Known about the structure:
By secondary structure, the chain is mainly alpha-helical. The protein has two domains: 3-22 and 29-162, no CATH class; 170-387, hpI Integrase, Chain A, CATH 1.10.443. It is 51% helix and 5% strand. The strands form two sheets. Strands 2-3-4 form a three-stranded antiparallel β-sheet. Strands 1-5 form a two-stranded parallel sheet. Strand 2 (223-226) and strand 3 form a beta hairpin. Helix 2 (35-47) packs antiparallel against helix 3. The radius of gyration is 25 Å and the shape is elongated.
Amino acid sequence: MGLKQKNQDRIDLIGLSSNTRTTTSKNIDKKSPYLSELIKKWLSEKERNVKASTMASYKNQINLFGDVISEISKQDIRILNLSTELIREFNAILNQIPAKRNAQIYQGKSFTELAQMKVNKISSKTYHYYINVVIEFLTWCEAQGYIENTKFKTILQSSKKNIPKRGKFQKINFDKSDLKKIFESKQYITGSFKRATDYWIPLIALFTGARLGEICQLKVSDIKKSDGIYCIDINEDDEDKSIKTKVSSVRLIPIHQELLNLGFIEYVDELKKIKKKNLFEITYGIIRGQYHSTQKQMSAYLKQVGITSTANNKSKSFHSFRHTVRTRLAELDIEERTIDAIIGHSSEARSIGSKIYTHTKLIKQKQSAIKKLDYDIDLFKIKKWKDCKFSVL
């Protein structure tokens, strides 16, 4: 049976369920809490230890679970009325809801109606996000004694395996031709960028190898001097920040001279004058760890200048900057430990803790490596930020 037929069977199941299913409550002890009450309680506990940006994702994902179950049951059920049938029906609907279900054209429609629409469905990656959160919630319910060990999680785990994430492409370096297209483009030469993010983020990535999320969440205060050297401080000191790995991702990266030449510090000083906290004005996406609007803008720019994926499951994307920086530093015979300390990769040498590697003793070593970082492109053609169309305001 092909995937298309399986999806149609799911849709048929959803339609049949919505038309014929009637809710028959079991004789449940009225002390059993309602599902909505437990969701609120779980979120309240999560909020104590989770950043605000991550909480937005948790709320969106677990509230959808509660809303779908309530729609199927035609009521807010008590947790002991949760059944394998309801879990299967939730899973069938989740897998078929539209990719952008909050769009205006979907307003007023039930989840069952949304699932039956012939539109683009949520990606397998997003599906996995939702299922993981539901499994986490059910695990908590078991630990708190609200439900016994059930088959609910087994059903959802099995569904995840049947709907694997999209095949991963191998990210590869930008070559000389790619870098010329990116940084000798009309936008960089004429200074026609309309957003500070479009101008600065690729440049920062080229000379730091930092992840897109790490750059997007930078605060003005993260640009600082350490031992007399201008550095970018990658950290999660603020509530709205998140880093990939606490041990290896926290780091100080000396700022390359090319960024200084283009006026990066002057840009930061202008932000300080108008009392801006964020280095860039970016809206954090609903999916945790992803700055979707900026990610799309970066992808669109790369496509516009002619950067395309290659054959054999190899692709070039913003993440290719990290590979490019690491490869170039290795070509320059920089020792592995120093490369890891710059890029933010874990290594045996760094496993003793990140503090020693953000200490000023290593700053000069990293600065020496950063100074050697060069590319066969003409950066003198790039307009300084003050001559560009974008504004810090």
